[in-house]
Amino acid sequence: MDFINKPAVILAIESSCDETSAAVFLGDTVVSNVVAGQIIHEQYGGVVPELASRVHQQHIVPVVAKALSDANITKNDLTAVAFTRGPGLLGSLLVGTSFAKSLAMGLSIPLIEVNHMQAHILAHFIEEPKPNFPFLCLTVSGGHTQIVLVKSALEMEIIGETQDDAVGEAFDKSAKILGLPYPGGPLIDKWAAQGNPNAFTFPVSDMPGYTFSFSGIKTAILYFVRKMEAQDPQFVEKNLADLCASIQFTLVKMLLQKLKRAARELKINQIAIAGGVSANSGLRKALAELGQKERWNVFIPAFQYCTDNAGMIAMAAYFKYQQNEWTPQSVSPMPRMSL
Ligand code: KG4
Ligand code: ZN
After folding, report:
1. Strand order across the 29-36 sheet
2. Which atom of ligand 1 is nearest to the CA of 143?
3. How many CB atoms are closer than 10 A to CB 27?
4. What's the gap in Å between 185 CA and the centre of ligand 1?
5. Which residues is 148 bridged to in the sheet?
6. Ligand 2 centroid, distance to 308 Cα (angstroms)
7. What mean pLDDT is predicted for residues 161-173?
8. Residue-wise over 174-196: b if at least 16 C-beta within 10 A, else e?
9. How confident is the model at residue 6 (pLDDT cuts 50, 70, 90)?
10. Torsion sign (Cα): 280, 285, 288, 294
11. pLDDT at residue 3, rounded to an integer
């Protein structure tokens, strides 16, 4: 199928974790982006994969219908259907993949698979200002912490990553220790705004090169909180804002020290952040300040394109659309998928 001369009208579907999302890309931009979250996981303190896939099944039809109607189009206007192939939870990915395959087959239009982590990075091309290639992207989510050298829209190289927990996991697990519900990252962010980042000191891991490690800080927080609660059972309650501010300060410091090293050594001054944790206000502020000092051009996505959303899937799909890069109907989801 050769669609290069047809203006793009792409429906994109994201279902890799616990957000069901659909977006429409029209002409050269994202015109609708609908996201349905899943509150059911809160009571379990984390995403329960089997429940997530069932909720995706309930959400997908209304979410797609809303994305089409928000864009003022019908399914017959579409010229391609894009979907997240991975990485993510198998059952969740299956819902989006099967839906996209069936719709593309029914409409006899091409199918485009998208890598979720590439899409987080390509979200930077949805709105101005857009980075120039090559640039460095710090991708920080619930499952990943990577420094990526982005050579082009379809050519990316991971130059450093975490050897254990992702930074989003570190936020969520720290929040859990403090008794906050899942996902705790945004709540740490909220409480941190009223706290003193220097109230408590937590160890900063020192890993070689651009490697990160976040499992030590989580353990340090756990032991510290246990020790303090033994002296005062209300310690967390009384110091919640200061605890959150100090934890956030430490995690952000660990991220930025590696990013600074990579930018200096690779002599790149186009610096972007992506992924759910890039919504963190402490990280956004510290990155903007560091960027001024280091004379970087800093790119921070709009909030709606930081956490999981289909707008970024649509954007990534458009780069493939321009190359006539279609995916066969025999495709299946890939829970583990590198860049
Ligand atoms: O990219 P994302 O939406 O899903 C994955 O692909 O993992 O990232 C979710 C992660 C969660 O760990 C969540 O707690 C974290 O991003 N997160 C935040 C904030 N908003 C989302 N962490 C810190 N501060 C925030 N404001
Ligand atoms: Zn994500």
Report:
1. 29-36, 20-26, 9-14, 80-86, 111-115
2. 7
3. 9
4. 6
5. 137, 158
6. 5
7. 97
8. bbbbbebebbbbbbbbebbeebe
9. confident
10. negative
11. 58
Q: Among the bound ligands, name the one nearest to the CA of residue 141.
A: 1
Rounded to whole angstroms, the Cα distance separating 224 from 197 reads 16
Rounded average pLDDT over 308-335: 97
> What would the two tokens of residue 307 be?
């956490």
Count CB-CB contacts under 10 A for residue 232: 11
Residue nearest to atom 21 of ligand 1 (CA): 276
- Cross-sheet strand order for the sheet of 135-140: 155-161, 145-152, 135-140, 270-274, 297-299
Question: What does the block give as tokens for 89?
Answer: 């939870």
Lookup result for tokens 């120039």? 132
CA torsion 262-267-271-277 (nearest 10°) is 0
> 200 CA to middle of ligand 2, Å?
30
Check if 275 has its Cβ closer than 6 Å to any atom of ligand 1: yes
Torsion from C-alpha of 315, 319, 320, 323, nearest 10 degrees: 150
- CA torsion 284-286-287-288 (nearest 10°) is 80
Pairing of strands 155-161, 145-152: antiparallel
User: Which amino acid type is present at position 298?
Assistant: V
Give the predicted TM-score (pTM) of the model.
0.94
- Using alpha carbons, select from 25, 33, 26 the residue that is nearest to residue 304: 33
